[in-house]
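Internal tracking record. Fields below are filled automatically when a chain is submitted to the structure queue. Please do not edit lines marked as system-generated. If the sequence contains nonstandard residues, flag them in the REMARKS field before resubmitting.
Queue: standard
Priority: normal
Entity type: single polypeptide chain
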Amino acid sequence: MKALVITEPHQPLALEERPDLEAASGQVIVKLKAAALNRRDFWITQGMYPGIKPGVILGSDGAGVVSQIGEGVDASWIGKEVVINPSLDWGDKQQAFGNEFSILGLPVDGTFASEIVVPECQLHEKPSHMNWQEAAALPLAGLTAYRALFSQGQLKQGETILITGVGGGVATFLLQYAVAAGANVWVNSSSPEKIQKAVELGAKGGFLYTDEDWAKQFAEAVGAPSLIIDSAAGPTYDTLIDLVEMGGRIVNFGATLGSPDILEMRKVFWKQLRLQGTTMGSPSDFDAMVKFNVEHGLKPIVDSVYSLEEGNAAIEKMKVSPQFGKYVINIG
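SYSTEM-GENERATED OUTPUT FOLLOWS
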């Protein structure tokens, strides 16, 4: 089989030929049709992720056909079109993952390959309304967005929500899901083009966070959002605390700009705010996420498609994040 493998940080992934896989007890082999990139893959290649192991096949997102099953696996999986839940060993609590939790693509081999071995419990039937590229783009970002928005953010129909940094994979899912749920969705971005694309997908409008007074513009035009979902944090986090309504919620699934310089706790308790962290989700989150996409006929936004041989070019583009939606690798 072919596989894109990390050799060491700051070096291109190596395209290798490896022996075909065998399914052990409780496992299945999936012949992959497509995989998708996540910001996680980029951080790993830059050495900015814990537990990096040379020789690991990267990639958390994948969709394909079950080609082989191990002992004890339901035989009906053979030949089925599936998407793979990359959230491994979540644990028993819905509120947070347990000590054994990991993500497909490090420490175990991932989806940038012609086939993959995973436990049977990670399989979910591919939504029939999605093509292979769309299905491959769904798992990690779709799961992260669903948990942030519903399990943690408790979004309700008719609420006003701000999604920061629209254009990335998770933020694009957040936009689609919030619009489908009947929320009043607003976004910010550094790109007028990305804001326009967000409006085309149902956002009410957006603001350029490169404008120093963007939050003032928001407050004057819209008012105060009930919910903000953010992945940047950093020095401007206090702006979000000022902007959100009394009793509002701010949910963070990342901190690409680092920790806030100051966290004004007086504002937090005076405004009765809920600051909520979130990550990828539980098996029940994944099931609910897939059902939500099917019920609403949603399809992931695919920015561009690459071959396995072009995987490094896709990762290189992530340095400047020009995409709106997901980068996908076509495999089979």
